[in-house]
Amino acid sequence: MTTYVLRRLLLMLPVAFLVTVGVFLLIHLSRGDPALVLLGEDRSPQAIAAIHHELGLDQPLYVQYGIWLGRLARGDLGRSVITHQTVSDAILERLPATLELGVVALLWSLLVAIPLGTIAAVRRGSVADHLATGFTVGGVSVPNFFIGIVLIFVLSVSLHLFPFGGYVPLTRDPYESLRHVLLPAIALGTAGAAINMRFTRSSMIEVLNHDFIRTARAKGASWRRVVFAHALKNALIPVVTVVGLQIGGIIEGAIVTETVFTWPGVGRLAVESIFDRDYTVVQGIVLLAAFSYMFANLLVDLVYGWLDPRISYA
User: Fold this and answer.
1) What domains can you pick out in the chain, each with its CATH number?
2) How far is it, in rounded angstroms, from Cα 189 to Cα 168?
3) pLDDT tens sequence across 165-188
4) pTM exceeds 0.85, yes or no
5) How far is CA 255 from CA 99, 249, 260, 297, in A?
6) Which of 13, 24, 16 lies closest to 64, judged by CA?
């Protein structure tokens, strides 16, 4: 397995290079000038030219890319154009909030999806199956910002059960942190729960028709043991693939949710940086999101071997 992991990490290098090229070009070829944000009302051509020279924007794109790539190779993501804070520090300050939100949202989606999908597969065609299918359609169709607004109106404004915004670090007060994160996590994780539930149901139906299930039943194994000890583990392989994509997409998936709930995470930082034309911070966040996808895919491949011993890393 060690050889396989090292080989996958080496294969990530050319992909990472292409990602840096794409990120750099997309950011620098988009509309907007950070000099206009910095100068405010004083937008004389001389002042704009001075800012461009200070930021290196007056050089050709390939020169700017070479400088940025050289810094990136040393672990330097640059400094914020607006606040002059290092991009690494800006992201690390916001990352714990996004990770907490993403982990809770992922747990919520799995705790809902796997039991519902299993029940829907075992009782195919029943009322529970139809309700689960309805939840899937609703979860995928309704955008997460609308779910967030409804949760705020019902559970925060009307019933006063949860706070509707803000963030409390987990290390400071775990209980208050959970109360603050629960609503945005439900809003963020509902679409994932619907997708995971549908994959669990479809995969379970397929696995329950395999010969080894009939063999286990013929040997006298209880239905509960057949479902949970034999069928579920094999049925989770497609679900793991989808969950891996959801793990990789935590940052960009949280952009809208963090904005709705005023959650001080990386997603909200990305929105603020886009409006401020703070291209160095946006580059760092997009790069982080891209690498999170690559490492999530590697993690998924490793989990495959645990779920199915027939899978070889040779």
Assistant:
1) 2-73 (no CATH), 91-307 (1.10.3720.10)
2) 20
3) 788 888 888 899 999 999 999 999
4) no
5) 13, 10, 9, 21
6) 24
